[in-house]
């Protein structure tokens, strides 16, 4: 067989390499030696032999049997046979990006960590976002916790902040992690469901483990269906320590706050997206970076002085508790910007290996028993996932700091150590490499000398025993629409649970202790008797509400990077399209023109406008808002087009801002939609933009939600 060989493609990143990006990213420079560009190169075997024929196996005659000596075919197939590596046990589905972190100022009073000292210094980072439950090919928008793992390539070694988009966790002790993961993963007999927690084993476990109550209510909230990875907060979850040059230690909790604001999809939209665009989140992140809309997060810490460790009505070592921001505000440390997509998904996103135990001088652990277990688990999992203990040598994992020690050999060793002495002390190699004593700056790592005087026991601290007060605080802190979403999520998930005793246990023994109204509403939706009281006396928190927890208070205040669909058919008012596009661009938002098909649409004055996609190709769930320009013929065509009408109804149902210009108002009348703060009509595009943009800035028209329920899904 002979096939036509296509011309070599230009690298996808060609042209986007500005000198600034290349120069400022030391990690990318260190990756340079490993990046392979085949442009203009001969096809060769792994031994470097040029290949003359890549189409045909070596055979005894053109119709004869294949020959074992064909080393070219065997090498190729053997390599292919081993292309897959085990996926991560949890967080298998993910995506990543490169960027940098920059401190706002010198934070030496707080920590001696070098990357937090010099505001002029850009520390390279690689971030991997993930879902938890589903396998590598599962949907992005399922209801789940999102992983938020950041590797800082500091001059003093790698620091990994391996967090989630929720500030607490399901369990208090690492020994329960395999139990929790086995429960949340798909059912063992039929491997259903993929990517979700709406099944018996999950609810069986969490209804028997009250310490999960707080995290589960976060997972039933809108936080579990983020609109994009760019609009998620991140949390280090555990309490850590920051230590300064004088050896003073303070407890801290790490927070990431996105400059795009924190917001979510609506549930019906999330479910549809899981089918219509499985890659919705990774695509959004990829496109934002390609377009130069670099996502940003502010890193901050809540600081607790050592002497105040016991001042709270919870234990700061308990990973099922937050420190409310109203009690300890966040001190901003610096900003992270993601400005470069990976060159190769497998080499970078799949092979990156995080571990909470990767810390640098100036940072240390607390005794949170969940964190302590994690310090062991991550390195251990990489050994089987990445095929041995040399995973730190993979290009994406290599520190920018030099690595010298006596560790040798093992599978996949790539470093060629030149010295003779792989032990310490030695005199043969002049004693090198040598220890570095701890110092104010650039010293060797020294653990914080915390005094421990205790009996060796297996026991949960009494201070970890309150499981409901913060779950209640979370529910009380939600806006009305967020509370409704939580009730709906519990009802949906428990409705999928087959065993009624599990549903009842969750309602009576967990939800009733969080909030009776919540429990009653869910019981009603499940057809269960409504509980009249909780099963225990729940501790009172010092705070009734924490406004910082509600996403209603976390809007960005602008419409930057928001996506608007413009629906048009032949005869559309071209000037209205131009005016709206210009106004959106001026605000940093993006518009896409969609037609009934992928063919150009003709404007009323006869111009052919190329469209970005057909309405079916880019459905309403891919956008934040919809604009329909006037033009009598265009509106007549859209009025008779089921796809266009569904587009508007669906955007309305998902509470999106819709602006109807000129004749497009007829569509509102046809679909019998009531005007509201997010559904606007007018003859003048200029006058429409302000209320339209205000509505987009509100993220969704929440007041519409009760009415939107009547719209068929
Ligand atoms: Fe974990 C992966 C976050 C508890 C054991 N975890 C993993 C990832 C994130 C988290 C973001 C994906 C990293 C990546 O993108 O490669 N995990 C958390 C958080 C936890 C947590 C925020 C609680 C606060 N994890 C936890 C415990 C254990 C593990 C208690 C075990 C005792 N986690 C793992 C793991 C994974 C992992 C099995 C799977 C793949 C990997 O590590 O590299 O070792």
Automatic annotation (TrEMBL):
Catalysed reaction, written as an equation: 2 H2O2 = O2 + 2 H2O
Active site: 91, 164
Record carries keyword Metal-binding: yes
GO MF, one annotated term: heme binding
Domain of life: Bacteria
InterPro entries: Catalase, Catalase_AS, Catalase_clade2, Catalase_clade2_helical, Catalase_core, Catalase_haem_BS, Catalase_immune_responsive, Catalase_large_C
Residue intervals of the Catalase core domain: 44-432
Entries under PROSITE patterns matching the protein: CATALASE_1, CATALASE_2, CATALASE_3
Stored CDD domains: catalase_clade_2, GATase1_catalase
GO biological process entries: hydrogen peroxide catabolic process; response to oxidative stress
Pfam name, any one: Catalase
Keywords: Heme, Hydrogen peroxide, Iron, Metal-binding, Oxidoreductase, Peroxidase
Cofactor(s) the record lists: heme
E.C. number: 1.11.1.6
Any single Gene Ontology cellular-component annotation: cytosol
Chain residue ranges for the region called Disordered: 1-24, 420-444
Function comment: Decomposes hydrogen peroxide into water and oxygen; serves to protect cells from the toxic effects of hydrogen peroxide.
Similarity comment: family membership: Belongs to the catalase family. HPII subfamily.
UniProt name for this protein: Catalase
Organism: Pseudomonas khorasanensis
Lineage, broadest ranks: Bacteria, Pseudomonadati, Pseudomonadota, Gammaproteobacteria, Pseudomonadales
Gene this protein is translated from: katE
